[in-house]
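Customer ticket, subject: "Can you confirm the structure for M23 family metallopeptidase?"

Message body: Hello, I'm evaluating your service for our small team and ran a test protein. I'd like someone to confirm that this is what the system normally returns, since I don't have a reference to compare against.
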Amino acid sequence: MYNNRRYSRKRKGYGSTLIKQILVCIIIVLLVIVIKKMDIAIVNQSIETFKAALNHDYKAADIVDSARNLASKARDIPDNIVAAFQRSESKLAFSPPADEDAIISTFGEKTGFFGSETSGFERGMKFQSDQELQVYAVGGGIVSEIGESSQYGKYIKIVHGDDVVSIYGGCTQIYVQSLEKVKKGQLIGSVSPENNGYLSFELWVDDDIVNPASYIEF
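Agent reply: Thanks for trying us out. I re-ran your input and got the following:
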């Protein structure tokens, strides 16, 4: 009889511990899901803490305190981490305007600018190929303008909404019309390799020219 009572107490204690461990696991999983949406680095840093937490014999009060502490840390995530997550989402919305292997110049200050001995500032990106270069819309939108200028040559301008505009200069063939609705990745033009032709691509956000690589995954 004594052995049965002792065995019953052990089972009861084991069951109580198991329930606490399950509650801890549920709280941890929910917090990981929330934090992961903000920044993967925070999740990686937290995993080791969570592993140690699982090996701890929790009391009910410990569970509540741990949940409050982790929730407080999640609220204190710096704005720059949230901004980084938003930039990551933005990259998912756009695709390259041409074959990545054809990139010959990227955004920013250049020494020996585009084959010359002078320095300059690349306002966007340039693409060039020995074969005919296919030009694609980086995102869905409306063709707002098709024209020709001394700066761009033959060009296409697409408005993507949210004050985002993409410009494709240097086209030798244009396959879309003004006011036409285009989809992400749609073929909109091409650049002939003759006469060292190249695609000059620019991306504008809120009327400011920006680095395409900040919005497009190359």
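A couple of notes from the result: The first helix runs from residue 2 to 36. Residues 103-214 form a domain with the Glucose Permease (Domain IIA) fold (CATH 2.70.70.10). Feel free to reply with more questions.
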